[in-house]
Amino acid sequence: MPTPAPRTGFASPYMQVAVSILLSATAQLLLKRGADESVHGATLGFAGLGSAWVWLGILAHIGSLTSWLYALRFIALNVAYNLTGLIQVLVPLSCWLLLGEKINPLRWLGITLVVLGVIVTARPLVRVEQKL
Amino acid sequence: MSLANLLLVLLSEICAVAGQLFFKRAMTLPDSATRAKFLAIFLAGIAVMALNFFLWLGLLSKFNLSFLYPFDALNRILLLLGASVFLREKMTPSLWLGVLLISGGVALVVAS
Question: What is the ipTM of this complex?
Answer without folding.
Answer: 0.87
